[in-house]
Amino acid sequence: MLPNSRTLALTALAPLAWGSTYLVTTEYLPPDRPLLTATLRALPAGLLLLAFARRLPKGAWWWKAALLGALNITVFMALLFVAAYRLPGGVAGVLGAIQPLVAAGLAVPLLGERPGGRAVLAGVAGVFGVALVVLKATAQLDTVGVLAGLAGAGVMALGTVLTKRWGRPEGVGPLAVTGWQLTAGGLLLAPIALLAEGAPPAMTGVNLLGYLYLAVPNTAVAYWLFFRGVGKLPASSVAFLGLLSPVSATVLGWVFLSQSLTALQMAGMALALGSTVAGALFAAKRGAAGRVVLEVKPAPVAAKVRARLGS
Hints:
Mean pLDDT: 82
Order of helices and strands: HHHHHHHHHHHHHH
Low-confidence stretches: 290-311
Structural class: mainly alpha
Distance between the termini: 33 Å
Radius of gyration: 19 Å
Largest sheet: none
Helix content: over 70%
Strand content: under 5%
């Protein structure tokens, strides 16, 4: 078995699950309530994980958890939905696919991780593969939507890298840290959703089941797996797995919504999947090989940034 392949496989379940969000949201939830949906994904999931973990942050981890929750949950989801509402899904998916490249760039000053040329090439190929899967010739661009999509990818990449940088308090597992982030993100989202969208609408049984799915397997379990992977793998390696989300969404649309798949889309899926596996493994191997060197002699820029951010 290749190094870290089991951890990569488990972590990959998270973006695969996130690919189902569009299907569930459009088919089973009230329309035009993106911020409500984001809140009901994050806050119940966070409280559930806190109930299992029974640990609260201490000391500096109060502000660290709040900042990570704001980046990974609040700001990211808000920007994601702005892009989703102003752009065709394909364009939004391609913008999100740049996340591995952004994470690889941020990992250089913040973590001292230097991506190899093969990993960068895999990231570029992955973006191209996702474009083949989801883009249509009639896709229209919107400046605000494009900026939101790019910013969302950047914010999530930064949150992933900082999650790796800060790690976890001694004796605290990924379940608790994930619960802190989701709860903080949900609490920040709740008043924004109330002000922007008003009181929640009346819910049907189908709506409640949809929210239950998003809160538990799609968010609580998926984010726990994701942040568990961030703790064990190089940040750039985990970020590559985000390419699986648009591929998963396309396959689910084909299976459950009878959406057609062209030969070009199939080729794009093969390219995106191949790039995901190759890029994640290249980054993981390079991270494992460079760990001893970084422990002995950290990169000067990385050392300065670490001193400013704290441990």
